[in-house]
Amino acid sequence: MTARACIRTAPATPCAPWPRHVLSPEGWAEMATALAASPALELRALWADTTDVFALLHDGEAGDFLFASVPVESGLYAALSPARPGAAWFERMIRDLWGHTAADGLDQRPWLDHGHWTATPPLAARPLPNLAAPEPMEFLPSEGTDLHQIAVGPVHAGIIEPGHFRFTVSGETVVRLEVRLGYLHKGTLGLLRQKSPRVAARFAARLSGDSTVAHATAFAHAAEAACDTPAPPRAAALRAVMGEMERIANHLGDIGAIVNDASFPLLQSRFVWQREAMLRTAYAAFGHRLMMDVVIPGGVATDLLAGGYAAIIAALDAIDAELPSLMDLYDTTASLVDRMQTTGILDPALAARFAPGGFIGRASGHIFDARRNPGIAPYDQLDVQAPALEAGDVDARVRIRAAEIIESTRLLRLILAELPDSPLSTSLPQITAEGIGWAEGFRGDIWHWLRLEGGLITQAFLCDPSWRQWPLLEAAVKGNIVADFPLCNKSFNCSYSGVDL
Amino acid sequence: MAWRALWHALRAGPATVELPPADEDEVATLAARLKAASVRKLGRSLAIRMVDSGSCNGCELELQMLGSIVYDLERAGLSFVASPRHADVLLVTGPVTRNMQDALLRTWQATPDPKWVIAIGDCAIDGGVFKGSPAILGGIDAALPVDLVIRGCPPTPAMILSGLCALLEANTDPSTRHLPR
């Protein structure tokens, strides 16, 4: 049986918008093996609760989505990582948080659990006191002559999030990079439990501060899907407005940071100025520079403030006026472009296996955009353009981001021109149900899953696209010189907090 | 072409905002605290080492803006440094996660005396929304002595700049107190 058939023939239990197919442990194992022969089936998220393991897959050929789960038996379930190496980080996280072990998983080392928690696994039905002393992380070996290691972090030299990078280098060239994260683990998933979606939305909004609108939107969408109560049209439109503003601000800041890492502050200062202008616009339009806590389950907390419309249009005009000349300056500065091109190449074949989504995928020829498929209001009316390149280097990621800024300004003008009139929010019924929500953040597709019982969250998972993107950074850095790592890293800009949960 | 960006900058004038006035009460409180601790004066220049001990990245985004042309931290005598060994001030964001406690403490130990710790953002003050999570210890004061707090989720660059200027003022001999404009 194909992997698709394994899932589709299994009995389904209700979940909105896709029914959850409950596979037997044997059926799941067969599916896990069959995945190797179905390269079009992309793993978008893998997570667990106290009794089951869940997988969300996208069929790149049929264009639809498959949601599968399997009950865990004696603490084990069949690993997906042999056929989908991108599942390895998820499997390590599942063991650390819920205690379920992926049988035959590629990597059984701990991930989020650094040995400092007082009770483990923290999300299991009955966590046990942790009495063992923390053990140092075991890094993957590199074989060869004249190799040495460079250890960086968790506290970095710049103003960025903490994480440990272990480089194995030969002279100047990186032979292997291994990333160790988990330092920012705040127990977010546990904090969601026994709270209503309205109360819990504050945690979703703080999973990754740079994507607060996108995560809050996916979270709200999941709660609304479970309750079969869509947000009013004006709320959906305002969410899209904030989402596109967030995308523009992040891309502007990141392009500035990338060119700054290549020592070109002239361009950086202009990009960062435009970012600041966008943040001030967000404050003028929604009362908060990052637009935190404006998106709530059921709708939005505030309407566009007085003067907000004009402020956004003015900011878009300023970007449309200046961005072409900034990209022209980028293009005509040979010493800059020389640093960008052929640096940090993500092989399109590898991108296809990990399905990273976002600009990372699109710069390596792999197009996925949650605004187009599965789609979300009001984008279904807008014909969202997702440009793609094949080169997969830092330069391609810069160009895709610049193109996305232009596309976002176009979308913003369209959405703002026809803001529907409706209430801002609706109350959600207190029911027992399950739902999946999504959003296209600036990094890529975000997936949230919620199980509600009597209106309260009992189980949840919030999936940032960085889960599938970090391992690709490790691959893209290989063969580059150490001095180019900041360029590669900034061009990916994966979230630390978003995957540390 | 570069001339276009340069011309634009010349025509538009500086994008840099004025330094905010330091809050008098804050300056007085800080000055009293520094005096009580008999801390040696460091003059009008402070080197800052930023540590994220569990933040969502929101505070970092705003802190990054301080170094931009818009807020231009360095004109006030404040600069971000790459190593705690070069720092006078540790600027800490986020609740202290159990997984970051060790790294935070080591960073603090690596910072030479006299040193100050500033807790930035609501999470750093008492854990913020994450208060009560078994994965965190609490606010920064659960791990380190804190000298100054700057509220907000996240605080805006202007708020952070104002707090830092207060520390600078408090650290200066009252007879020569003045801030560059």
Give me some keywords for this one.
heterodimer; A: 501 residues; alpha+beta; five-stranded mixed β-sheet; three-stranded antiparallel β-sheet; 17 helices; 18% strand; B: 181 residues; alpha/beta; five-stranded parallel β-sheet; two-stranded antiparallel sheet; 6 helices
Mean pLDDT of chain A: 94
Name the assembly state: heterodimer
Secondary structural class of chain B: alpha/beta
Determine the mean pLDDT of chain B: 84
Parts with pLDDT < 50 across at least 5 consecutive residues of chain B = none
Structural class of chain A: alpha+beta
End-to-end distance of chain A: 36 Å
Q: Largest protein interface?
A: A-B, 56 and 52 residues
Beta-strand content estimate of chain A: 15-25%
Overall strand count of chain A: 17
Give the total of beta strands of chain B: 7
Overall 3D shape of chain B: globular
Structure report:
- The complex is a heterodimer of chains A (501) and B (181).
- By secondary structure, chain A is of the alpha+beta class.
- Helix content of chain A is 41%, strand content 18%.
- Chain A has helices spanning 3-8, 25-34, 87-98, 188-192, 197-204, 212-226, 233-261, 265-286, 308-332, 334-340, 348-354, 358-362, 371-375, 394-417, 466-477, 485-492, 497-500, and strands at residues 12-13, 20-22, 41-48, 52-59, 65-71, 76-78, 101-103, 119-120, 128-129, 147-152, 164-170, 173-180, 295-296, 299-300, 433-440, 445-453, 456-463.
- In chain A, the strands form six sheets. Chain A has a five-stranded mixed sheet with strand order 1-2-5-4-3.
- In chain A, strand 13 (295-296) and strand 14 form a beta hairpin.
- In chain A, helix 7 runs antiparallel to helix 8 (265-286) and helix 7 (233-261) runs antiparallel to helix 14 (394-417).
- The model of chain A has no long low-confidence stretch (mean pLDDT 94).
- Chain B has 181 residues and is α/β, with parallel strands linked by helices.
- Chain B contains six helices and seven strands; from the N terminus they run H-H-E-H-E-E-E-H-E-H-E-E-H.
- In chain B, strands 2-1-3-5-7 form a five-stranded parallel sheet, sandwiched between helices.
- In chain B, strand 1, helix 3 (58-66) and strand 2 form a beta-alpha-beta unit.
- The model of chain B has no long low-confidence stretch (mean pLDDT 84).
- The interface between A and B is large, with 56 and 52 residues.
